[in-house]
Amino acid sequence: MRRVLLGVFVIFVVFMFPGYAGADDRVAKADSLMDQGGVDNLLKAGDLYAQASDANPKSYEAAWKASHAYREYCNVSKERNVSGWQDTCKKYGKVAMNYGEKAIALEPNKVEGNFWYGCSVGNYSDGVSILTALKEGLKDKTQSSFEKSYSIDKMYDNGGPIKALGRFWYVLPWPLNSKEKSLTYLREYQKLFPNDVEGQVFLGEVLMDTNNSDEARTVLQKASASNETYFSDWAKKLLSKM
Asked: Is the Cβ–Cβ distance between 165 and 147 less than 8 Å?
């Protein structure tokens, strides 16, 4: 009897909500593409999550995962210097922001939507410039999303909210930036994740700008030996300026 009732329910859902039936399938396919990695797969995953979100507007999972995938597509395109990466960041950073905002509206007190929204603003800024993003009023929203994700679960995505706040306070133009706040967060992150090369570069850059040259050199030399070319090259450029 239970199987009959379940079958009737499934038929009802498919008939009444034709888009919903395939939403979970799209999410599963997108999850697989995210695991595989690669620029093309990240874009395909973002599109599938977006389709699932549009088909089921109440799906928090589909919304935040769409934001995450499109953000990663922007980020990897930038780090691999893919042709037209700035246009990619401008276009898909904005799309990622939109799905992040959708996720926050659905579940304002969960970490994923807040965190990936903030990261998406960063990639959008890579495409349009930080000053343009500030003119669009994105500073306070980004700060709020990162601080919210930090308060909910600062260890999410291997301490992502800690590192993000550290970078956020550094890249803002004067007088909005705060090297002191940046250093506080990045030192916290370094203690928890001492081998993360991105965190090393971020910390090293702030240390240089706060006259902590010896410590900066130690951190950046470690980063320069990494096999993650994008960050090791960045570290080497900073070292050459010391």
From this structure: yes
Which stretches of the chain drop beneath a pLDDT of 50?
A: 2-21
Q: How far apart are CA 62 and CA 134, in angstroms?
A: 28
Closest by CA to 45, choosing from 69, 77, 68, is: 69
* Full-model pTM: 0.89
Ordered DSSP codes for 16-30: H-HHHHTHHHHHHHH
What does the alpha-carbon distance between residue 189 and residue 184 come to, in Å, rounded to a whole number? 9
Residues 171 and 144 in one domain: no
Rounded Cα gap, residues 71 and 174, in angstroms: 26
DSSP assignment of 173-212 equals PTTT--HHHHHHHHHHHHHH-TT-HHHHHHHHHHHHHTT-
Number of domains in the chain: 2
For residues 125 and 27, membership in a common domain is answered with yes
